[in-house]
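Thread: quick sanity check before group meeting

JM: Hey all, I'm pulling together slides for Thursday and realized we never actually wrote out the predicted structure for the chain we discussed last week. Dropping the sequence here so it's in one place. If anyone has concerns about the input, flag it before I start.
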Amino acid sequence: MNASDLIRYTPLASANRMRIIVSVLAKHGFEELLIRLGLRRRFPYFWRKSPPPPAAIPLWKRLKLIIEELGPTAVKIGQILSMRPDLIPSDLCDELKTLQEALPPTPFEDIRAAIEKAYGRPLETLFSGFEHHPVATASISQVHRARRADDASLVAVKVQLPDVADTLAADLDILEYLAELLEERAPSVRPFKPVEVVRELRKVVRRELDFTNEAVNMLAFNALFEDNPRVFAPAVHADLARPGVLVMEFIDGERLDEFLGTSEERAELVSLGLESTVRQIMQEGFFHADPHLGNLRIVGRSRLCYLDFGMCGRLAPALRSALVDCLIALGGKDTARLARVVEDMSYSAPPDLDVFSLESDLMFIMQKFHTPCGHGFMGRHMLDLTAICREHGLSPRPDFILVARALLASESALKSLDPTLNPASSLSSLAQAYSMRRLIPGLSDRSIWAELEEAGRIITAFPRRIDTVLRKLSAGQLTVEHKQHDFGRLPATFQRIGNRLGGALVTSALAVCSAVIFSSDLGPHLWGMPVIGLAGFALSGMLGTYITFKMFRDT
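JM (edit): ok, ran it. Output follows.
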């Protein structure tokens, strides 16, 4: 089913949402784009022409204003996209990072209904002292403080807002429909692959809407830091975990930018935060993907608590090893090694990649990394690397992008504790320490014996694979699959031609039949002429006029 079918058969609520989206886009200066996409013709009743916005407002700022005006579900989509500069331009990512998630609370009766629907039991049998006013509100959920009815433990209850899943699904259907129109009618947008972006976004949203996934992430994080109780996530009450409700330990801590501890306490927390970040990414390969100030709390003046595990990253051992190589190459000013690393961390590369030009551009990152004015956020340096990759036709892996964003968020949060912190230098030193593990066979992340074993397996399997290809070739069973990309407007064009030919045939048949009836003088009569023949001529004339109008309008 294509996007047009999704819109054609969606319920009235989705149609109303489409009207809102079209009117907001027109309001913020995208009227010409909407006309180009054919939305005036396809949805004439949804069109509301608005005065253009001030020309001084930049494009990315206008897109952010559109998202904010479209409401909570659009804000959630924007926040997810802000973490993915591999999907959208980095300037737009930076603009979307400023989206505010605090929203007016949902009425308590709606929250009560959502909880009772999730558990099939009255709220009072589950929680005592359930506070009606939330302690936090967000685009798809809000958090209430309560006590369990069975053991009176203090908990935080995260509840998914009613109907948010249906609204998000409708928004994503409409986005995919608009993305298909963009790829079809706006060639300049095709390199950004808008349909692929929406489909990836749909996968991420589906995962975040199931709170049991977040519970799994929190349990895995606490297991990871079981040997270091100073870094933790709230304990999950697994027996109460549901797709729409998450019950966890209530954490009463301080934000990093509001902590008033001594300089020694701050330095200790900064060191703890950097070590936990490197351990998550370099050693364990499982990390919190959005550790900004709102998701970190200081507990007991010496412990660091991570909140909101809706988005986490997981890295394969080979990618973790490549990240260590990346930091070693940056620290050692090894441009050739860095070029090999960025190619390894990309899932596609052009066959005619100009390696020397790539190394030349990477030298700028090296110089920026090793000069005082360029020192700062390691995450920013890594995002600069991804920008250079895209300029040379390389496609960085989404995991690498997620790591860069997580590093940048963590560094920014920790710098609020110590403004003199140089995250790039500190993280590079910690990565160097991890690289020393390679000298120890039992701790190495890149075992030479494992690599030799893999190379031997590939070499021994190569003759067998060649033999399979030759046997299929001799038997005439070797096939080549050809895929036509960028099919463009051909399907829609063929459908339009078929509709017009069918309409023309019906009109012609109606005119001929009317002429036969008219000449036979078959009654009843009006003004001495056959009524059926007159009606047939009138109808065929209107159909012919409409088809002619459509032909000239679409040319």
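AS: nice. The chain has 21 helices and 14 strands. The first helix runs from residue 3 to 9.
JM: adding both to the slides.
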